[in-house]
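Quick start: what a row looks like.
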Amino acid sequence: MKTVVRRWRRSARDLGMSTAEYAVGTVAAAAFAGLLFKIVTSPDVRTLLLGIIKRALQLG
């Protein structure tokens, strides 16, 4: 019985570590998405993308 309790305690600690790692990964992904959104919606990039789209539509 004591062996089962020790194993459960060890695995419970590992679960907390995994949850914290997922939380850090989620925050990093959200920050990267925000940065990418800011870059794509900037006037310079928007002008560049619209130019590419217009040229592609004129070829078709």
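That is the whole record. The chain has one domain: 1-57. DSSP finds two helices and no strands in the chain.
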